Each structure stands twice: as structure tokens, then as C-alpha cells.
Request: fold
Amino acid sequence: MSQPRAVLVVGGSLAGLRAAETLRREGFDGRLTILGAEPHHPYDRPPLSKDLLLGNMEATDVGFPLRDELEADWLLGDPATGLDLVARTVRTRSGADHRFDGLVIATGSVPRRLPTFDHGRPGVLELRTLDDALELRATLTSRSRVAVIGCGFIGVEVAYAARTAGAEVAIVSLDPPLIVAGGVVAAVCEELLLETGVDLHIARHVVDVREGAGTHGLVLDDGTIVEADVILVAIGARPQTDWLEGSGLRLNDGVLCDACCAVLGPERVVAAGDVARWPNPLFGGIPMRIEHWTNAVEQGIAAARTLLHGSSQDTVYAPVPSFWSDHFGTRLQSVGLPLLGDRTEVVDGSLEERRFVVASYRGEELVGATTYGMVRGLVPFRARLARREPDAVGRPG
Amino acid sequence: VEIRVDVEICDLHGQCVFTVPELFRFDDSGELEYQRRVPEDLEGKARTAATVCPTGAIELVE
Reply:
């Protein structure tokens, strides 16, 4: 396969950066351009809800090192607004058209919004970018009352940071905390939140907001009123594919790719990170989209290799997914896809001590493992998951 | 190629152990152990381990 002459990377964050670096490492010597929606060069997002909020890190600490040999043109603060696959150009908000021969789609995700909620009110925040994090941090004081809507990773980590700053914290969530990590973790996390004095409203939602003098009264469906100065909406993320609407690409909660991260349809277009949906051969080829940090790195690398070498057995992307979350002085980590399981088994440690490893099985098949505080206990499960025969787990339905 | 780990930065996420158990492991007290010298056939995986380290604590030196 002939190599592309000019590659455009749309997305100036982790997946785009690792893709760009991989292109150079694998010998691509054409023109390399990276478009970023934010004004910043790539930076690390996990600290935004952890050490940056806690004050252990500053904005200057989160930037990724950039190597000179990348030799890329950075066009920042100008988000992509459209893709023309015939002209092979990407349009940006400023009205510029950028031609490409090879394209990496790595626009990540954006926070989901509540359909009936006015996100434009003062004091209503979300957390995705560095600027969001700095704005949120400034509100976390011993005098503030923070209401978090949603109880996923961001919600729990922000609750921890806010409590550490001495703020009063309430959480309103339809789901139990960290339910994406499974029921065992959810129960333990709920205890952690309650012990730390978080005012927890689970299986509840906001039906109205009453505005007071600089405060908001969140009216819940059971009639409870939660008073707050700051409201953080943290109900998950959706892939940033707005700019691909009407391009002809197949979009379905992400841009659809083959097993090598080549976007279905056009030639020499690949995708990586939160925005990409691809069939992971290690899990029965179920099309999946993974928002974890590690996936942005590994998929960025894989997509770049596919752009240079084409889709083949050598460029199949079959990772064991992995995530972590730091909160309340402990670390939650997971490997595989525990939610695919139909039963769990505590295989090490104890729930009472909140140091344990829980394995998830579908039938007899290991599909994932999760731990609070015992990362060493995950190692053998990670190894077993990596050795799975591709397609060992049947297709759903 | 040699591995260098900055133990001040390492936060024991274990991604390197997951990626290349041949070169990285946890000892009995949960600290990171690693083999400094990288065999040629493991150089690619060692590079991946450095890239997936969440704190950037791993460096490969030619």
C-alpha cells in the first residue's frame, strides 16, 4: 500500500498525539498537521478531576512533552466543523479548508447534557477541559456547597476533591456510584461516599431548579431540595462526531471502523480514542467504544499503523481494556470488560477492608477483573484475558 | 536498549506489568521490579510499556 503524502490529525489530545508520534516513528516523512479544538497543546486529562482539583498539580504540570522530531504543524483553537470526503478536506470554524491525503479522526468526546436543564446558568459547570477544571477548582472552598449530578468516575472524583477542600457535597444520580465498574464496586463506593459525609441521592433526578440569591435549589423527584452554589453536571460523555454529520461516514455512537481502526468506507481514513467504535476481536468482535486513557494511547498507535500499512492481520487492534480511578485515598482499577459478565467472584482480599479483587465471568469465560487497592492481584487476570482466543466469547444475541 | 524507571514519578499503576510481564513485575511488597536490559525481541513491547505509563515514569535509553 502506498503511504499517504500529507496526513491531517483532527484532535489535539492524547489519541491524536500518540497517532502523530507513531506515524513519524514508523517512517512517515510527509507533511503532518494537527488540528486542535482547544487553544492548548495536548495535555493529560486524568489529573483534571484528581490532582489538579486537589491542588497537587497546576496547569503547567499537565502538558505532555512534545518532541522536536514530531515536525508537525499545530493549528489550535480552531475546531473542525465539516469533512468533505470527495475533495478530501476538513473545514474548521474559522472557515479554512485543510486538504489531506491521510486522515486521523481523534476528536474525542464531549460531556453529555441534560435535555431539560439550562446549562447556561451561572454556577452550572461541566468537566472536560483544562479550562473547565480551573474554573471548577476555583469554586471548591470550605464555604461552598457543591451539587454533582451523576455518579460516574468524574462525579466520584470531584466529590472527593470537593470534600477534601472542605466543601459540602451532594450527589444526585439515577444510577448507583460507579455502576460501570459493577455492583460490588458500586456498594463499596457508596459506603466511601457516605462515610465522607457526601449527601447521596441515588435513584433520584432533578425535576426543577429554583434560583435564589446566588444559589440554586435543586428540586428532586421525591420532593427533596438540595441547595447548592455550584452544580457540576457529570452524566457521562458522547463522542464528538458533530463535525462528521452529513459527511457520508457511518456514525452510530462513534465513527464505525474495522478491526484495524480504519474508518468504514473511505480510503486512508482511520479513527482512534473516545470517538472510534470498532469490533474488538478479543471480545467476539462486538463493536465497542472505549473512553479510557489507555485506549487513547494504544488505539492512537494502532490507527496510525493502519494508516501507513493498511488493514491486515498485522494491524488488527485487539486490546485488553484497562482503567483506573483515584478517590477517597484508594485506587480502583479494572482490566477487560467486567460488565459483560453474568456473575462475579471475590478472588482476593475482602470487601470489609475495601482491598479486594473481583473477577467477572460470562458462563465459564473470564471477561474482566476489578480491584480496589490490590493492583498486583489483577496481573494474572490481565494475562489470562490477553491470552484469550479471539472470538472466544460468542457474539451477543 | 535499557529501561530506566523514575521511582519518584512511578505511581504503581501497573500498566507496564500488564503490557510486558517479561520485563516488569510487582515484588511481594507490591513495589515495582524490572529488568534493566531489554532483549531485542522485547524492544517493541518495552516501548509500548513506556508509552502506556500514566505518569511517564519509564524511559528507554539506547
